[in-house]
Amino acid sequence: MTSLAASPLRITVAQTGDCFDCTPHESLLTGMLRLGRKGIPVGCVNGGCGVCKVRILEGTVQPLGPISRAHVSQVEEAQGYTLACRVAPLEPVHLEVTPLLRKPFLLRRTAPPTVATA
Q1: Is 22 within 8 Å of 11 (Cβ atoms)?
Q2: H or E stretch including 77?
Q3: pLDDT tens digit string along 40-60?
């Protein structure tokens, strides 16, 4: 007899409407990758890079390990943000992929600096 807790759960990405199934024993990111799906950006797959940051809009997830505060603050976590590589679903999940943040040093200046001539 198959346990209800091991049944795959439907994961939906809000921006695209793409869906994939994920078990409660694997991370949201692993479930997506296992099925060859796209939707959640993939980085290191271990919680160190923050590329797979998502916001849980509906559903419940369980932690699979600590979430780096460098990528998800306590305030953000209270608002539903997490890393898809560090949580597993407990029920069907509707999530939103967060946009990648640009580092200030990557932004271009609007005008080149002026050089004084003699």
Answers
A1: yes
A2: helix 74-78
A3: 888 888 888 999 999 999 999
